[in-house]
Amino acid sequence: MRPTVRCLVWDLDDTLWQEGVPLPSAVHTLHALDRRGILHAATGRGDHTPALDRHGLGELYLARRFGSHRAPAAVRDLAAALDCPVGLVAFLSGDPVALAEVSSVLPDVRCYPASTVERLPELADFTPAVVLPADRERRQVTRAEQRRGAAEEEHAGTPASFVASLGLELEIRPAEREDLPVAPFLRSGGRMFDTLELCGRHAENGQEVVAASLRDRFGPYGVVGLAVLRGEGTSTALELLVSERVLSLGAAEAFVGHLVARSLGTGRRLVVEFELTTANRALLLLLRFSGFSIAARPAGRMTLAVDPLIPPARRRSPIRVLGEGVRPMRRRR
């Protein structure tokens, strides 16, 4: 079975409108797919922006290419604008020529005639096996990224001053099962976790899975970090997964700093088993800056630890950490 469509490009000239009014069936499809995390983009010969805004549909179309573009070029540009692989894009149009051109030039794009607009939510291509909270927030996260990027381009100060202006808030809390599917997309200090394994860890007594969610004045980033904590005698073993896209914001450092402070506050030594690769070198630097030192170097790996007797210095951060919801570490029975 091929993967679910992530982005639907609408040729608005022939699919959304009927005598200047949105078709109810098309509006239903817009909202149904949006709730499943499928993003919408728009193309067309004329500028449909005023009409979209007038009918309250503008927020649903995250990228637009209006004008005399050839359909394949417009679809390719819109996919790139939303960072979506072409193989996860679908094209909806009432123009047989445009559909034929896209099928010929971009054979991985799934093409649908306008007559199918009402039935799209029933098709397997548009029906994920599971719809998670992160999927339902995909449009809001993408829109926030767009607004954030535009603001950064207009910012006259330094990158650090722009980060300070974002009003970043990091919520650290017990992970829910709905948070765990993000794990394969996060960077770890060793092997990667899959969702099923983390679900097992989540349910196992004596272990704790913690999630970190980030947001700023533009909106949410989603879950940007997960940590598995396990009591071992007087130590706490930490397995850490973080999003690379927020390393430069200091969010991962704030997450690690919170876990370090919490562990040291209970008198426990925090330990990480780390397998260095080219891909996770930035994560190693993050741990070293957060107070971890190399305690041992077993074959092909290293053991990093924070000594409770030598706590790391507190570092200033532009991020407000909300962590009251994380429960104390449970001991094994």
UniProtKB/TrEMBL annotation:
From which domain of life does this come? Bacteria
Family matches, as InterPro entries = HAD-like_sf, HAD_sf
Please report the name of this protein according to its UniProt entry. Uncharacterized protein
